[in-house]
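It is worth pausing here to work through a concrete case rather than discussing structure prediction in the abstract. The textbook approach is simple: state the sequence, then state the predicted structure, then interpret. We follow exactly that order.
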Amino acid sequence: FGYLYNHPLHWIDYRKGLAEELASQGHTVLVDYTATWCATCKTNKALAIEVDSTVQLVNALKVVVILADYSKADPDIEQELKQYGRPSVPMCLVYAADKPQSPELLPTLLTPSVVQDALQRAGPSRVDASSLPGSPGDQSADAPASAASRQDPAS
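Step two, the predicted structure:
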């Protein structure tokens, strides 16, 4: 697609509690629960998340993006899906900085405006995301590999 952003988002691998931890530290966080076998997930990512306007807003607001890969059953992801009333993926949550207990659950089918409006409501991160493990600015040798460094399951 001609409107996909040339510089993809720098996804961080999901782990239970990471989004809440980052939000409590002052980061705005978007978590995309996805799977390789999920056509709707792929559509949401291609048409609503990784488009120019959304990527630019993510960067402007310093949003941390987490990829929760449910391609193979993961009990932690399954528990979170159930917690938010979803039988399976896709699911997308947006956490405002300093509000780890009240993420916004986005609808199943996403548009750029749905994602961007949720990010605008959440507001910017209060801290810089470049210091996160696995982020492009992280220089530590023991930083875990980010999802951006491997094949994305929803591509």
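Step three, interpretation. The helical segments are 18-24, 39-49, 52-61, 75-83, 112-122. The longest strand covers residues 29-34.
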